[in-house]
Amino acid sequence: MLKKIFVIVLCLLGSLSIAYMYSKDNIENILNAQSAPAFILPKGSKVVLGKYNNKEVVWDIGNNNANYVLMSSKPIVSGIQKYDDSIGCTKYCNTDGSGYCVMKCPNDILDNEINKIVTNTLEASMLSSAAFIPTYNEIKTGGTLGLSTTDRAYKNSTEYYINERGNTVQSIGYGWPYDHGTLIQQSINETASPETASPLYTSAGISIPLSEKIAVLADLYCQSNTDHRYGENNLRPFAVMDKLKIRFASNISYADGSWHSYSIDTSNFNENNELNPNKLRIQSSLTASLQDIKRNSQSTSKVMKNSSVDLSVTANTGINAHISVIMYNETGTDIQYYKMLEATKNGTNDYTLDLTGIPVGKYQVAVINEEYDASSNLPVESSAISDLMPLEIVEPHKITYTKTPQSGASAGNDYEFSKNVNASQTVGKITVNPQGVMPLTYTVETNGDNTYQNFEVDGLNSSGASSSTSLNVKIKSGAPD
């Protein structure tokens, strides 16, 4: 008898089967749901919208206070002239006999290029203002677009046209008209030349502070029809996008089905490049509602690291729509991770979410129902982001068993029948550290014979479960052997 008990005690850890108990049911999960915060693209992020000469256009967000003010990340044309005899340019010459003349041209050539930017029906629906060349009143500090100099000016050596005419105080003093040339936005690092170092005026006589980094460029400057200097600068379109119609956006590389640590790069703002743009998700008739988070068909709000859960989602189908997961921080204010899952199924269905690689911590989970188009970075339709549900990821349990004989056995013995191995006496201890999802349920199982019936885990509830991190293993009272 003693030998049988001793063998069972030594093997007890291998004889304990452990199952997870889930304390959150469906109703509790629904009560814990909260609305996702409004999705806002930060100033300086880049988005893809429309095509110019069949190339997708990347834009910087220069202001996000009311609607999104868009400025092309790179000029769509570098070094374009406004002068062309065929478009009705007018000539103005000095009356002092010097022979100096300028040609003042309309914006036809520039406008024609801007009009080559093509948007599809979806894109056009969320533009408050299609592509345009901004006026000084729109871009100036305190202007209608809400931009500062650093918001709108390229950081290094790139200028662009403004849809405004003007002149320098110096040239006006020499007898030239106020609308001598076309205004241009200089870059932040631009050093003023002698000609532009004096204050500027618009064609309406409004003074322009030098701090605005604005200069003036003649469309055509000539002397006695022999010296011709053609004005040439870059063309940078602006646009305005309806903030409320943007449901979500993420880096264009994120749609590969892997987990991505979510971030939006703003470091390339006004750098004259198209690095790290984001794909827009636009308001549509697609819907998605997160109903429950489950593990082993039971509702839960806590799971072990590197495990998986099932997301119960109600959604409708669209053109190549997919369900994607957005994981926020514990307070539901900042997006931490994003992953595109499988194709959307109509109605309420479960979608398996593999959490491998997501760190231990407390999160809020949401879903979005979005179109998937691998052939383009242009905007796609999507649902709004669903309500949030809490999910905590914890370390897996580590369970150890140590033999813990009570005193009473003869010298040299750990266990001795009738002295410290009898009904209600402790023979060992189970320790849970680290602690994973609690409570745990315990059962003592057979090791090939019936001696397992003599043992019990002390302190379990009627379901065989406990949240304690330390439990004693005892000889069962009224044991059969």
Question: How do the helices and strands line up, and which of them pair or pack?
Answer:
Layout lengths: L1 H9 L5 E5 L5 H7 L13 E7 L2 E9 L4 E5 L4 E5 L8 E4 L6 E5 L3 H7 L2 E2 L2 H5 L1 E6 L3 H4 L9 H4 L7 E9 H5 L7 E5 L14 E3 L4 E2 L5 E4 L2 E4 L3 E4 L1 E4 L2 E4 L4 E6 L8 E2 L16 E6 L4 E8 L2 E2 L2 E3 L3 E8 L5 E8 L6 E9 L3 E8 L6 E11 L8 E3 L6 E6 L4 E5 L22 E7 L7 E5 L10 E3 L7 E2 L3 E6 L6
Parallel strand pairs: 21-30, 24-31
Antiparallel strand pairs: 1-34, 2-3, 2-8, 3-4, 4-18, 5-17, 6-7, 7-15, 9-18, 10-11, 10-12, 11-14, 12-13, 15-16, 19-21, 20-27, 22-23, 22-25, 25-28, 26-27, 26-29, 29-31, 32-33, 33-37, 34-36, 35-37
Structure description:
Strands 8-2-3-4-18-9 form a 6-stranded antiparallel beta sheet. A 6-stranded mixed beta sheet has the order 20-27-26-29-31-24. Strands 13-12-10-11-14 form a 5-stranded antiparallel beta sheet. 37% of the residues are buried. The longest helix is centred in the N-terminal third of the chain and has 9 residues, at 2-10. The chain contains 7 helices and 37 strands. Helix content is 9%, strand content 41%. By secondary structure, it is mainly beta.
Question: What are the salient characteristics of this protein?
Answer:
mainly beta; six-stranded mixed beta sheet; 37 strands; about 10% helix; elongated; disordered N terminus
